[in-house]
């Protein structure tokens, strides 16, 4: 059992009725900014509030901030449309891919919120994507927004940091329709109990979904081994199955209803909520490079599978990421014996390719040349595969930049 702390600051309408709340991750009972990165914080907020059985008011909306990475990974799609308000991080800039995602979120029924800075940057030409715009009273004169508010009747304007009755009255007169600040209520630090699924079970689920995507029984079996994961899968299925008259309670039914893409999104969210994303970022990029390299080179050796090679490369940093010996990690994963031996001792052909990759990383060219000759691989082809993997990794990293 773990606890997630978060700040919950209410938002009110012009009749001072409770409209919703903003949820911000905190690391304890003090209302201080956390030291973890935004994606990890968002994942923990979503898991603890929407997937843990903690009851949220069906009549309220909950504002949660999402980075560009989280939006492109479609993390909001596992959440209830009627209750989640997607807040776009101020660091985020529009791109064709992101704009398509935001249009899809809005079409699905999610509300999109952005800060007032969108009127002074690249977002201005896409301003009609947003349902809500927030303005900070301590940084901006609310009177300046009178004309803008009247120009955009389809957008609701939220004013933050309202501390006095006269500020609330003036903001009403200027056209603001949502309000937040100490005048109404100070933010409260709340704690939610949440049982996090085992990281090993999550990784096993990743393996099974990628290896046997159409084997529903096997996928259901691995999910059912962890009570917390099973609960979150069933909860997520019921969130998405809002139109069904009967709730989903059968594990297999939940897996079938979610489908592969929703399962992958949910498991990615849960893995992120278990790790400090910032500390693992450089290891993740290195693991992606190895995974792509192994996927491309494994078929060059008879009897090796590219997808299994990908898993060996991807999991080669798990001991560092999880802070435990590789023996403890590999012993619980549903990998072939050849893949396990590659990770534990660089044995076998998968292990040899992994060693080749490591030595290219360290520019040990003599060793690389001799090993390629021993494996009857063309060194030039292998180095070209590494360079291609490096370029693909850089492209992926750029698209996920927060």
Task: Give a structural overview.
By secondary structure, the chain is of the alpha/beta class. It contains 17 helices and nine strands. It has an eight-stranded mixed barrel. Helix 8 crosses helix 9. The protein is elongated and about 80 Å long.
Order of helical and strand elements = EEHEHEHEEHEHEEHHHHHHHHHHHH
CATH architecture annotation of the largest domain: Alpha-Beta Barrel
Strand order, biggest sheet?
Answer: 1-2-3-4-5-6-7-8
Taken from the alpha-carbon principal axes, the silhouette is elongated
CATH superfamily of the largest domain, by name, is EAL domain
Number of domains: 3
How confident is the prediction overall: mean pLDDT?
Answer: 84
Report how far apart the termini are: 30 Å
- The fold-level CATH name of the largest domain is TIM Barrel
Uncertain parts: none
Estimated share of beta-strand residues: 5-15%
Question: SSE layout and pairings?
Answer:
Layout: E1 2-13, E2 18-26, H1 38-50, E3 61-66, H2 68-72, E4 84-88, H3 96-108, E5 111-115, E6 132-136, H4 146-151, E7 156-160, H5 165-174, E8 178-179, E9 188-194, H6 199-211, H7 216-224, H8 227-240, H9 251-274, H10 277-297, H11 306-314, H12 318-322, H13 326-330, H14 337-345, H15 348-361, H16 365-374, H17 379-399
Parallel strand pairs: 2-3, 3-4, 4-5, 5-6, 6-7, 7-8
Antiparallel strand pairs: 1-2, 1-8, 1-9
Pfam families: HDOD
Protein name: HDOD domain-containing protein
InterPro entries: dGMP_Pdiesterase_EAL/HD-GYP, EAL_sf, HDOD, RNase_Y/CdgJ
């Amino acid at each position: 059992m773990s606890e997630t702390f978060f700040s919950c600051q209410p938002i009110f309408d012009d009749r001072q009725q409770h409209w919703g709340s903003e949820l911000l991750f905190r690391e304890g009972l003090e209302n201080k900014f956390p030291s973890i990165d935004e994606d990890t914080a968002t994942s923990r907020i979503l898991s603890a509030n929407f997937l843990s059985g903690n009851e949220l008011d069906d009549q309220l909306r909950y504002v949660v901030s999402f980075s560009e990475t989280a939006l492109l990974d479609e993390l909001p799609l596992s959440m209830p449309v009627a209750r989640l308000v997607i807040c776009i991080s101020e660091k985020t800039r529009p791109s064709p891919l992101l704009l398509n995602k935001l249009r899809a979120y809005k079409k699905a029924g999610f509300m999109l919120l952005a800060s007032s800075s969108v009127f002074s940057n690249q977002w201005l030409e896409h301003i009609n994507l947003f349902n809500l715009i927030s303005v900070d009273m301590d940084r901006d004169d609310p009177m300046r927004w009178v004309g803008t508010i009247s120009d955009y009747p389809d957008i609701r304007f939220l004013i933050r940091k309202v501390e006095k009755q006269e500020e609330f009255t003036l903001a009403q007169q200027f056209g603001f329709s949502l309000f937040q600040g100490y005048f109404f209520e100070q933010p409260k630090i709340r704690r939610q109990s949440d049982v996090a699924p085992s990281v090993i079970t999550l990784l096993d689920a990743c393996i099974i979904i990628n290896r046997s995507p159409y084997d529903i029984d096997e996928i259901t079996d691995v999910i059912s081994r962890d009570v917390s994961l099973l609960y979150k899968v069933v909860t997520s299925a019921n969130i998405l199955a809002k139109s069904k008259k009967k709730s989903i309670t059968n594990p297999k039914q939940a897996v079938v209803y979610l489908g592969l893409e929703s399962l992958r999104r949910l498991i990615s969210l849960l893995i992120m909520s278990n790790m400090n994303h910032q500390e693992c970022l450089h290891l993740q990029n290195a693991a992606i490079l190895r995974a792509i390299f192994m996927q491309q080179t494994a078929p060059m050796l008879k009897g090796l599978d590219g997808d299994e090679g990908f898993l060996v490369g991807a999991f080669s940093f798990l001991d560092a990421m999880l802070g435990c010996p590789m023996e403890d990690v590999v012993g619980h994963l549903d990998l072939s014996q050849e893949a396990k031996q590659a990770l534990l001792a660089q044995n076998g052909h998968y292990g040899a390719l992994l060693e080749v990759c490591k030595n290219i990383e360290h520019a040990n060219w003599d060793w690389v040349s001799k090993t390629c000759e021993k494996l009857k691989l063309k060194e030039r082809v292998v180095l070209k595969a590494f360079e291609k993997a490096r370029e693909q990794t850089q492209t992926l990293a750029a698209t996920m930049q927060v």
